[in-house]
Amino acid sequence: MYTLNTDFNPDQFLASFWQKAPLVIRSGIIDFDDPLDEHDLAGMAMEADIDSRIVSRTGDKWDVAHGPFENFNQVCKGKWSLLVQATDRYSEDVDELMSLFSFIPYWRMDDVMISFAVEGAGVGAHTDQYDVFLIQGKGSRRWRVAPPDNAEVCRPHKDLQQVASFNPDIDVVLKPGDILYIPPGWAHEGTALEDCLTYSIGFRAPDQNDLLQQLADHLAAAPAVAGVTPRRYSDPHLLPQEHPSMVSYDALSGLRQLMIDYLQSDQGEDGLLSILSAQYLPENVPGEPYTLAEITEAVETGCAVYRAPGCKPVYSENQADEEFSFYVNGERFSAASSLKPLLLPVLAGQPYPPEHPVADADDIAMIQLLAILINKGYWELRN
């Protein structure tokens, strides 16, 4: 069980450092033990559905190889690093690391990338457009960090973007359990001082293009809602205009308002929540669907229902009185509002039931909902 150092105050961090300035948190995780090692990481990198790459440097020559890998000897040359994305979706212990930062909303969480680097290795000085907590595992790594300065970007390899000039004002060595927070846009460079593991807890911040593209994809894939007809542009008071090529100010305003009205509608909110919950979770459905009777019996005889690794459900603060809705991996689920007190701990990662047998009507309704979530692979039964 991982815990943050009690000297770390989330409220103070968010007020003074989040998206503002880097922060070094010494012994941020007390008595830190790596949840996996480089051999486990290599095993993940051999899987076709897990995103991985090896960044290597020999002299001034950089190279990038993408997984899945079969023969590491062919690509692990010179000063090399193995990086594997979304490891929290495949490991309960790694998922627990990300849960340490649950004072930041789930919809902002992206994934945990783990890198194993040999002595002298790194990926070069670069900037990211997202917040990241870097947790040092075994070994040690030197980090240099510089404030945003519009540094020139260079590409020593087509798959590797770095900054050409780098003038750090932070130069620090992290040891196991230390944490370095880096805001978006701050250039940083990590160099392994010995063979080491680093856990990058990344957060997403969609830009306007991302949101509009994802919303368009959602609309194209979403089934029609019964009784809901999309509003269409109309201009019953159209007047002759001086040139047919001109788009009038009134027309542009009307089209813009049409989009704004959609975003402010229930359907628009549903679309946004759907894309904010999308995680592309791995397929984790049971071989045979569980029946309601099987799940009820399992819970009554000591089993519990746990959220699957990497699953980060979201819900809107704005809820109807009679219904509570939440979203998982792009899907919307609804329950009676009376289930909200039971659901909130479960959405936050607590097991169900909380040490009591299935008894009243709400418990039975809860089991029915969990049966759906289990059979979709978002929650799972454990002894």
Estimated helix fraction: 25-40%
Number-wise, the strands total 17
Estimated share of beta-strand residues: 15-25%
**Overall pLDDT metric:** 93
Which second-level CATH architecture of the largest domain applies?
Answer: Sandwich
- Main sheet: strand order: 1-11-6-13-5-4-2-3
The description of the largest β-sheet is: 8 strands, antiparallel
Radius of gyration, in Å, reads 24 Å
Name of the CATH first level of the largest domain: Mainly Beta
Characteristic terms for this protein:
Malonyl-Coenzyme A Acyl Carrier Protein, domain 2; 383 residues; 8-stranded antiparallel beta sheet; Jelly Rolls; 2 domains; alpha+beta; 25% helix; 3-stranded antiparallel beta sheet; globular
Compose a concise summary of this entry.
The protein has helices at residues 10-16, 38-45, 92-99, 208-221, 249-263, 266-277, 292-300, 340-347, 361-375, and strands at residues 23-25, 52-58, 61-66, 79-84, 109-117, 132-136, 141-146, 153-157, 160-163, 170-174, 179-182, 187-192, 196-203, 304-307, 323-328, 331-336, 379-382. With 383 residues, the protein is α+β, with helices and mostly antiparallel strands.
Molecular structure report:
The protein folds into two domains: 10-203, Cupin (Jelly Rolls); 292-382, Malonyl-Coenzyme A Acyl Carrier Protein, domain 2 (3-Layer(aba) Sandwich). It contains nine helices and 17 strands. It has helices at 10-16, 38-45, 92-99, 208-221, 249-263, 266-277, 292-300, 340-347, 361-375; strands spanning 23-25, 52-58, 61-66, 79-84, 109-117, 132-136, 141-146, 153-157, 160-163, 170-174, 179-182, 187-192, 196-203, 304-307, 323-328, 331-336, 379-382. The strands form five sheets. Strands 1-11-6-13-5-4-2-3 form an eight-stranded antiparallel beta sheet. It has a three-stranded antiparallel beta sheet with strand order 10-7-12, with no helix packed on it. Strands 8-9 form a two-stranded antiparallel sheet. Strand 8 and strand 9 form a beta hairpin. The model has no long low-confidence stretch (mean pLDDT 93).
